[in-house]
Design goal:
Layout (H helix, E strand, L loop, with lengths): L3 E6 H14 L4 E5 L1 H5 L3 H10 L4 E6 H9 L6 E5 L7 H6 L3 E4 L2 H13 L4 E6 L11 H16 L3 E7 L11 H19 L6 E3 L3 H6 L7 E4 L13 H4 L6 E6 L2 E5 L4 E2 L5 E2 L4 E6 L15 E4 L2 E6 L7 E4 L12 E5 L9 H7 L4 H6 L7 E4 L3
Parallel strand pairs: 1-19, 2-3, 2-9, 3-4, 4-5, 5-6, 6-7, 7-8
Antiparallel strand pairs: 1-10, 10-18, 11-14, 12-13, 14-17, 15-16, 16-17
Helix pairs in contact: 1-3, 7-8
């Protein structure tokens, strides 16, 4: 019996992808599996997403794309975050991974890699429409597309797509979504005027695909919503019928009663007002439980149990109400999971920790094994 485990419901991933497909019926579906599939496990989730009908997979790093190919994935993959001299560029080009290009240096490097391998690099040009991260600025865009057109004519690259990323699709009625869409279409017009004819235009992330249908275009990139975590306000999980794919469980390591006045954990930030039965949960911030969490709770036998004091590196303490009856070490604790079970969600832990559900699921460390439920 392990001290803790993560349960991954692959059926929930399939359910969420199907809901999103129905919400964007005219678009291809790209399942984002970067960052070890948001902490859920790169290869099992990628296989489950393909089985559920995902047309594409998307990753941040070229190394992640290589791992997918090494695991046997032969379908379309897009990778979008790399630096000069990336050692995995050649492997991506030779195995048909499609690569995002945001600058002249990256356009030149990917073309040189294709020439070295006597191959063709399939690329997606990225325009920065307002997020101000990756992507060519509006001022640099025409120069980039003209260079891409010239290099495409030489037969070493194929401009498959043009894309951008929304900054504020998670904020309902935010005008910047409409503004970014206009800038995106203006950028596409510049590219087409230069002679490029991309097959795929894509702008929408999870929030865009669900809340802003006019951003869907040819392909939608679905990240956090695939995992059943809210891409917007936490209540949108229910609005969009999303199911949490990850739940985090631990076994109580110790049960005891402390006297009134006894403090718990480092810094003595909480002390018992009356004799209190407590339980020791053997996971901590080294496993990804946020140390800053306040007013947090977990679930034991369907009962909410408050987290007491500070989360430590390997453990934290909870109150065990008398309503639980007799209880001992080895009892299951649900730290977070699907709201339908009564458990706190990853979004709830985001609220406890003044962050978002995305961070909660991606930070659960590899000291905790993943157990997969449902077929691949």
């Amino acid at each position: 019996m392990t001290r803790a485990h993560v349960a991954i419901d692959l059926g929930a991933i399939a359910h969420n992808l199907e809901f999103i497909r129905q919400s964007a019926p005219s678009s291809l579906l790209l399942a984002v599996v970067k960052a070890d599939a948001y902490g859920h496990g790169l290869i099992p989730v990628a296989q489950a997403a393909r089985a559920a009908g995902a047309d594409w997979l998307g990753v941040a790093l070229l190394r992640e794309a290589v791992e997918l190919r090494e695991a046997g994935d032969t379908g379309p993959i897009l990778a979008w975050l790399w630096t000069p001299g990336d050692p995995d560029l050649l492997a991506c080009v030779t195995t048909g991974v499609q690569i995002s290009v945001s600058s002249l240096w990256s356009l030149i490097e990917v073309t040189e890699a294709a020439a070295q391998e006597n191959s063709i690099a399939h690329i997606h040009l990225k325009l920065d429409t307002g997020l101000s991260r990756n992507g060519a600025s509006v001022d640099e865009w025409e120069e980039l597309v003209l260079a891409a057109k010239a290099l495409q004519a030489r037969g070493r690259i194929d401009v498959v797509g043009i894309w951008s990323h929304l900054a504020n699709a998670s904020i309902e009625s935010d005008l910047s979504v409409a503004e970014q869409r206009v800038r995106f279409l203006e950028g596409v017009a510049v590219a087409k005027q230069a002679g490029l004819e991309p097959q795929l235009l894509h702008l929408a992330n999870s929030a865009g695909a669900l809340a802003h249908p006019d951003t869907q275009f040819d392909l939608v990139r679905i990240g956090i919503a695939m995992y059943g975590v809210s891409p917007m306000d936490p209540s949108s999980v229910h609005q969009f019928n999303l199911q949490a794919a990850m739940s985090l469980h631990a076994k109580l390591a110790l049960v005891k009663t402390i006297p009134a006045g006894q403090a718990v954990s480092y810094g003595s930030t909480w002390a018992a007002a009356v004799p209190t039965r407590i339980g020791l949960v053997p996971v901590g911030y080294a496993d990804g439980i946020p140390r800053v969490a306040t007013n947090a709770h977990v679930l034991v036998r369907g009962v909410k149990c408050a987290v007491l004091g500070r989360v430590a590196m390997d453990q934290f303490t909870i109150e065990l109400p008398e309503s639980l009856g007799e209880i001992s070490a080895g009892e299951d604790v649900v730290i977070f999971g699907d709201a339908s079970t009564g458990a706190p969600t990853a979004d709830d832990w985001g609220t406890f920790s003044q962050t978002i559900g995305y961070e909660i699921v991606t930070r659960i460390g590899n000291r905790i094994p993943r157990n997969y439920q449902g077929s691949l």
